[in-house]
């Protein structure tokens, strides 16, 4: 039986065709339907959509809380790093505006800002409300002792794309990085890195 994997990635909604991180996530999704791989995969956007569809009064912190629960159930985290990842700040909650940016909801105050963190984060991430979705997901992964596979949305290792906060967590020994690899094997984007990382997924 393959492992349960959580895929952490971010891109603009509606999907910006110039930012191909979604293409990486969609390719990873196909691994689930391939009998050779035997994986269970949860992707960030699936969790976001599920929370929005089932919660008319959704907040960014609700989404982080649900992502945290999916991370708890996962064995490995795949962190997709593209050319815009280092500057992504979506998900930050200042207590005043906590509605998801692409939900169509009017700006609403956070339901959890003055409450104990464990109310939504299950005793998890200190000041998680002030973090972006991506930073919260990796910090939560570190806290729960999850291992991370970093994949670059490129044919090369683009080290300068990695967010500074990620490097800080890694340098402080907060989590184990299993490997970092370019996701794409060819210019046509038809071959991916699965063979390079499969030992960590089985």
Keywords:
single chain, 202 residues, alpha/beta, Rossmann fold, five-stranded parallel beta sheet, 7 helices, 14% strand
What overall form do the CA principal axes indicate?
Answer: globular
* Strands side by side in the biggest sheet: 2-1-3-4-5
Number of domains: 1
Q: Mind telling me the CATH class?
A: Alpha Beta
Strand portion: 5-15%
Main beta sheet strand tally, sense and closure: 5 strands, parallel
CATH topology: Rossmann fold
Multimeric state: single chain
Give the rounded overall mean pLDDT: 84
Can you count the helices? 7
In the CATH hierarchy, the architecture is 3-Layer(aba) Sandwich
Give the CA-CA distance, first to last residue.
7 Å
Describe this structure in words.
It is a single chain. This protein is an alpha/beta fold and 202 residues long. The protein has one domain: Rossmann fold. It has helices at residues 21-30, 44-54, 60-73, 118-121, 133-143, 164-171, 194-197, and strands at 4-8, 40-43, 76-81, 147-152, 176-182. Strands 2-1-3-4-5 form a 5-stranded parallel sheet, with helices on both faces. Helix 2 packs across helix 3 (60-73) and helix 3 runs parallel beside helix 5.
Short description:
With 202 residues, this protein is an alpha/beta fold. The protein has helices at 21-30, 44-54, 60-73, 118-121, 133-143, 164-171, 194-197, and strands spanning 4-8, 40-43, 76-81, 147-152, 176-182.
Secondary structure: elements and pairs:
Layout: E1 4-8, H1 21-30, E2 40-43, H2 44-54, H3 60-73, E3 76-81, H4 118-121, H5 133-143, E4 147-152, H6 164-171, E5 176-182, H7 194-197
Parallel strand pairs: 1-2, 1-3, 3-4, 4-5
Helix pairs in contact: 2-3, 3-5
